Amino acid sequence: MSRMLRSCIQSLLKLVNSFLAMFGIAMILYAIWMIRAWNREMEDSDYPAPWFIYTMLGLGVTLCVITCSGHIAAETANGCCLYCYLVFVVFLLMLEGAVTMDVFLNRNWEEDFPKDPSGNFNEFKNFIKENFDMCKWVGLSIVSIQGLCTVLALILKGLGPHQQRHYDSDDDYTLEEVPLLRNYVVGAPVYGTR
């Protein structure tokens, strides 16, 4: 029974991680689009791309790396992999919580961020203000998915690793454990006699 439960939890963790990976890929694509737009607008300028673009790209790549480690942890159900994955997800949740608290509790939160000469940050901020309900639900769903990943990883860690038997040699296997080899004789080949 625990074997089937472990398999279901592993599959569920992989599925939930896939949603996070899609969001990370969307962030990467948005950052690449902004870099192309920045380069197109500032062809003759020596300004580097603004911090906001690199932040989006970095967060997208980080989210993809975290989801990749989540897939590895879910597949192996190894305690060390699960702990590393949990550390990554909890750190990301704490970072999101800190930024969210800064935005909601600090009236001058815009002063905490560097100036953005491209105007992309202002466009992003205006988009969020205009579509606040949609952005609120997207943000809430992402945080919920990350929380679900944490809970599933903890359950998977609680179930323990796969119960595998390790044998020193092939002679330790019995035929009951290898049902496809029952009809075959292992040993020296028998040649026809004359």
TrEMBL record:
Subcellular location: Membrane
One GO term describing the cellular component: membrane
Membrane topology: Multi-pass membrane protein
Main location: membrane
Keyword field contains Ligase: no
The keyword Signal is assigned to this record: no
Keywords in alphabetical order: Membrane, Transmembrane, Transmembrane helix
Listed transmembrane segments: 12-33, 53-73, 80-99, 137-156
Classification via InterPro entries: Tetraspanin/Peripherin
Protein name per the record: Tetraspanin/Peripherin
Protein source organism: Helianthus annuus
The organism's taxonomic lineage, starting at the top: Eukaryota, Viridiplantae, Streptophyta, Embryophyta, Tracheophyta
